[in-house]
Structures are given as C-alpha cells and as structure tokens.
Write a structure and sequence with these properties.
heterodimer, A: mainly alpha, MetI-like fold, 10 helices, about 80% helix, flat, B: alpha/beta, Rossmann fold, six-stranded mixed sheet, four-stranded antiparallel sheet
C-alpha cells in the first residue's frame, strides 16, 4: 500500500512538472483551464448533456431487447430457419462494419431528405435509430457469446423433460447466458454513452455540439473540459460497477467450485 | 423386492421396443442394429465398455439423438416416425444423466417444478405440492431452497432423479448415474433406484456397477461395438456368460475391483 502511494506520487509529480514546464504551457492553460468560463458555461452544457442522456437511455432501452431477439434468431436450429439466420448475420456484419458516424449521417440527413409522408424528420429520432442499429449489432454478438457459453447438456436436460425449444431457451439457457454477459453488456453501454457525442454532427444540440457553439463564440477550449467532466461523471461509476460485478461473479464461481 | 409389481408378459404391448436401430456420428457407427424390448415394470441394465453405445442408445430412446434406421416404439406408439410431437413423447420418458445437468440458476424446488409447470401445465402451487412430496420421499425436503452447487454430488443426482420423476414418466432411462460420484456417495443414489425398481418403475439403466446390476435387474444386456452381444437374467450373464467377449469384459471388471 505504502509503495503504491509513493510510486503514484512520484509518477504524478513527474507528469505535472513535465507538462507545466513545457514551452506552450501558459497558452495551453489559458485555452483549456479557464475556471471562469468553466463555471459560466457549466449549466448550459449540462442542459445539452441531458440530450445525450435521453439519447443513450432511449437507445439502450431498445437495444437490449432487440439485440437479444437478434441473437436468439441467429441461434435457431435447423435448415428451415436458414434465411432468418443468414439475414441476422448480414445485419450484424453490416452494422458492425460501417463507422457509426456514417450511419448517423446517412440516416440523419438522408431519411428526412426523402420527404416521404409519415417519415419523421426529427434528427433526434434518426440519431436514436442510427445508434440503435449500430449497437444492436454489437450487443447481439455479446448475447450470442453468452448463449453459446451455456453447455449443450443444459438444453438437453430441459428438452428431455419435455420442454419445447422456446421454453428451454426462455427458462434455462437465456437466464444463464444473460447473467454471464452482464459485464460486457455494460461495457457496450459505456461505449454507447460516449458515441452519443457523434450525434452533434447532425446539428442536434447535445453536450459536444454545445461546446463547439461556445468555443466559436469565445475561442476558448475550456468547454471541452466541461463536456468531458460530464461524460466521465457517468461512465466512471458505471465502469467501477462493471468491475464490481465481474469480481463478484468470480468470487461466486470460486465458492461454487469449493463446495 | 417382494412387494414389486409383477413384470408383464412380453407378449403384451411392451413398454419399450427398440427394433434394429442404427446410429452413426459422421463416419463412426455407434449403434449397429440394436433390438431390445422392455416389459412394463421391467428393469434392464445395459453393461459394456465405454464407447459400446450404451449412452447413445438411451439418448436415442429419449429422442435427444435422431436415429438413422430402425424403429423405437413406446407403449405401442412408434416415436421415431415423421409426424411425432417430440415434446409430448419426452414428457413420458425420463432420463437422468451422468453429470446431473441440474439447472444451476434455480433452487432444488425450481429445478423439480419447472417441467411440471411448463410442460404438464400445473399451477405453481400444485407443482410445489407434488415436488414437496417427492423431495420428502427421497430425503431431500430440507434442500428445497438450496442451489445445486451447495449440494453434494449424491444429493445433486438424487435431485436430478426427482426432477425426472416429477414428470410422472412411464419409462425412466438412467445413464451411468453414479459414474461421476465419489465412491462414498454411490450407495445413496443406488438406494433410490432400488426403491424405484421395487415400486415397479420400468427402467433402462446403463451402468458400470455390476453388483448393483446383478441386484436390481431382471435382465442384463451386454453391449459390444454397437450390438447387444448377449442378454439374459443377471445370474446367468454374470455367472455363466455364453460369449467369450462377455467373459473378457467381466474379467476386466473383476480385475479392476468393481465386482
């Protein structure tokens, strides 16, 4: 413990001294660390940040069930379901392959431009759709790994009792699979939270877009720091929570092995 | 054994009929024409070296593995035909596995009541009541709230037997149910099976426990390379085996101290 504290102090001291002694430090400090601008802009950027919160909450609420459905479709057995499996694979490959920013641009600018009756023109709407499409592809792979990690003997036991494929999946396979992938699911949720900043490119005024507006007015960069603070304030607790879940699962498994 | 219901005459409709069943896994032909018939209330033990096809035969009878040729008939109904409802068939045929295959995320009670509720359509209270009676009967009443990993191997296997019995099967398949147990835990599981035999349960049992087979079986079948090489009452098969292969197998078992 003492060694860890000492070495941390030394490392931080070297970094601080190294950075503050750099030739451009004074301008850098004035540009990024202006306490006055920080305080002044915080409420405004916090307001905009609620747009990010809404984006990732709405998107995640759709992603979790949609990705599970996609993973289940991909696990359907037999030749009858080949077209469904194939479509699920094409979807996952496509949306994991295209950069998120491109999907956001194509949907956010493309769909409203169609001018079709009934097609929403709200860019917030299309931003949610774009994030949902991309992250559903990722998250379905996480679920699929979970489903495949459940030993086939569990399904065999359920089926041997007369349960249908669906009942076995619902009551035996999925509960075990989902429990195992909670940490990677949270990990993807953190990724989604950060990627909501990409939506600013459409003109939706979320935290990052708001910092750009402010920066354009004062030519000061402290606003970036405000936005960074807000994102980190949400993602770090979630990351620690994920670590805690992983550690708890490991402890439980070890306890199970000893018993 | 005196209270045991009499074994039905085989000229009546057999509880189980296996007719020239063949099964291959890829190039490997595991079952090469199995013929076997079980009368109601009859207990038949399958013995033979690992890989002789005992487990595969049981999995085929439970329709966990499709057969390549032949027929399997349960209580007069062919279950290997095209338009058979496998879930309905499996409800009447219980199977207990070597590795227990309990559902680790469910308590003992939930393990036992899942299939009665979902496949037999019992209400939770009715399923709970039935399960309580069964658990009581097999000395597991105080374990109903425990998770499987908190139980000994012997207790887990007894729960697995109870789970199969909760579906009120007409036929019970036991697949080397003591092979994964520590030696001191074998007896408690064999006692349960003896009790079931005394109660008239029709059972097909793959086992390495020769003493137990001699004790409990009406008939013993020796499997060798996917065929039933010899069958007969236990006194005859263990006492004066007709086939040289059977003799060799039994000598190896004796040499290994297993009989």
């Amino acid at each position: 413990m003492a060694i860890a504290v000492a070495s941390t102090v030394v490392v931080v001291a070297i970094l601080v001294v190294g950075v503050t002694r750099s030739p451009g430090w004074d301008e850098f400090k004035a540009y990024f660390f202006d306490w006055g601008y920080y305080r002044e802009s915080f409420p405004e950027i916090l307001d905009a940040f609620w747009v990010n919160v809404k984006l990732f909450c709405v998107a995640e609420a759709i992603i979790l069930p949609a990705a599970l459905l996609l993973a289940v479709l991909r696990s359907l057995p037999g030749p009858v379901f080949f077209p469904i499996r194939a479509l699920a694979i094409v979807y996952a490959d496509l949306f994991r392959g295209i950069p998120t920013i491109l999907v956001i641009f194509m949907l956010g600018f493309g769909m409203p431009a169609l001018g079709l009756d009934g097609v929403p023109t709200s860019q917030f709407f299309w931003a949610v759709v774009a994030l949902t499409l991309v992250y559903t592809a990722y998250v379905s792979e996480v679920y699929r790994a979970g489903i495949e990690s459940v030993h086939p003997s569990q399904d065999a036991a359920a089926r041997s009792l007369g349960l249908t494929h669906g009942q076995s999946l619902r009551h035996v396979v999925l509960p075990q699979a989902v429990r195992r992938v909670i940490p990677p699911l949270l990990n993807d949720f953190i990724g989604l939270q950060k990627d909501t900043a990409l939506v600013g490119a459409l003109g939706v005024v979320e935290a990052f877009r708001q910092t750009q507006i402010n920066q354009a007015a004062t030519f000061n960069g402290t606003y970036y720091l405000v936005a960074a603070t807000l994102f980190v304030a949400i993602t770090i607790p979630l990351a620690r929570f994920t670590d805690w879940l992983v550690a708890r699962d490991r402890r439980r498994q070890q306890a199970g092995r000893l018993a | 054994m005196s209270s045991q219901p009499p074994v039905s005459d085989l000229s009546q409709t057999p509880a189980l009929g296996v007719e020239s069943v063949h099964k291959s896994f890829g190039e490997l032909e595991v079952l090469r024409g199995i013929d076997l018939s079980l009368a109601e209330h009859e207990v038949v033990c399958l013995i033979g070296a690992s890989g002789s096809g005992k487990s595969t035969l049981l999995r085929c009878v439970n329709l966990l593995e499709p057969i390549d040729a032949g027929r399997i008939v349960v209580a007069g109904e062919e279950i290997t035909g095209g338009r058979i409802d496998v879930n309905r068939v499996r409800r009447g045929i219980g199977i207990v596995f070597q590795a227990f295959n309990l559902f680790p995320h469910m308590t003992v009670l939930e393990n036992v009541t899942l299939a009665p509720r979902k496949a037999r359509g019992l209400s939770r209270s009715a399923a709970d009541a039935e399960a309580a009676t069964l658990l009581e009967r097999f000395g597991l009443a105080d374990k109903r709230g425990e998770y499987p990993d908190r139980l000994s191997g012997g207790q887990q296997q007894r729960v697995a037997i109870v789970r199969a019995l909760a579906m009120q099967p007409q036929l019970l398949l036991l697949d080397e149910v003591t092979s994964a147990l520590d030696p001191e835990l074998v007896a408690e599981v064999l006692d349960v099976i003896r009790e079931l035999a005394a109660g008239g349960m029709t059972m097909l049992i793959a086992t390495h426990e020769m003493g137990f087979a001699r004790d409990v079986a009406h008939r013993v079948c020796f499997l060798h390379e996917g065929r039933i090489l010899e069958e007969g009452p236990p006194e005859q098969l263990f006492g004066e085996p007709r086939e040289e292969r059977t003799r060799q197998f039994l000598q190896r078992i004796v040499a290994a101290g297993r009989m």
